[in-house]
Amino acid sequence: MPQHDTLHFTDRGLYCPAGDFHIDPWRPVPRALITHGHADHARFGHGSYLATDIAAPVLRHRLGDIAVDTVRYGTSLTVGGARVSFHPAGHVPGSAQIRVEVAGQVWVVSGDYKLENDSLSTPFEPVRCHAFISECTFGLPVFRWRPQAEIAAQIAGWWRDCAAQGRTAVLGAYSLGKAQRLLSLLDPAQGPILCHSSIEDTTDVLRAQGLALPPTIRATADTGAKSHPGALVMTPPSAMAGTWLKRYGPVSTAFASGWMALRGVRRRRGADREFVISDHADWDGLNRAVAATGAERVFATHGYTDVFARWLASSGIDARPVQTEFGTADADAAETPEPAQAQADPSADGSGTAAPGGAGRIAARD
Ligand SMILES: [Zn+2]
Ligand SMILES: [Zn+2]
């Protein structure tokens, strides 16, 4: 990569020489700019952190005693020889794309993003740039999301059916972002909503920031189907098989994830129901986002990087995949799509499964 590039890909992460800072680094660095609080983007051990004012409370909650400076969306800062600003990514509350300008060259790091307005996160705003570093977690045409109102209706119907059959509805969702988005789609008049403590803790942090979330009850040793008949229990996927759920039996289990679009993942999960909803852009969203930047260079990170970069290159964009350590840290929601069962060909409608980056295993954190 030429030395005059605004950002460099290093073994610690994305680095801006002019500003002497890293963005979402995966090894300890003196100064880190952080797009959002998910574990593969916000790691412990940096000298200082800079994030949006909305993202900072969750960062402190997850990383403890760290030095965090905050900035509001759209406010321009000078960091060394670089101009820096954060812009809404629509992924989780406070999530940002980071714009870096050096000597008239504008680069944007997307972090994770989605285009649909979930009414909790500040909606995604495209940022014009020369070079766009884009995630592509769901960079295959098979991934096309339905509007979230449709998914909300599906979940409400499933919960109603569970209650009618005397079953507790147990919904698996990642603790930061997805869980709160799903909560905001639930009608508390339908029944009590209980949350595993890891979800309840994060929800409390976001609630304290003024986000509108329905009332929830912390799942404890004293709660169960007897005390809360007709309940919906939200749990991180990792706790789905725990013995703690015995108190809620009989249960009906469901997962809410973009990966539920893949047959292989659905089968392996073995839940009674699945809901296809993600906090990452789908295939159309990725393509619309890239087009809206006007970028002539695109670097594809975590996900189906090879496929997405090849697809963009075929339409005349200077696009290439980049190896990063994003998308590998969140054991919480780890999925393992099977190795390629079908061509990862964007020109096909993609009804099969292919592993991103040609690897057989990925970790998902949507
Ligand atoms: Zn994320
Ligand atoms: Zn990510």
Fold and architecture overview:
Helix 7 links the parallel strand 18 and strand 19. The protein is 20% helix and 23% strand. It has 366 residues and is α/β, with parallel strands linked by helices. It contains 7 helices and 19 strands. It has a 7-stranded mixed sheet, covered by helices on one side. The relative contact order is 0.14. It binds zinc ion (ZN) (2 copies). Keywords: Exonuclease, Hydrolase, Ligase, Nuclease.
Helix percentage: 10-25%
The CATH homologous superfamily name of the largest domain equals Ribonuclease Z/Hydroxyacylglutathione hydrolase-like
Q: Tell me the overall shape.
A: globular
CATH architecture identity of the largest domain: 4-Layer Sandwich
Structural key phrases:
single chain; 366 residues; alpha/beta; Metallo-beta-lactamase, Chain A; Rossmann fold; 2 domains; six-stranded mixed β-sheet; 7 helices; 20% helix; 23% strand; disordered C terminus; binds zinc ion; MBL; Ligase-associated DNA damage response exonuclease
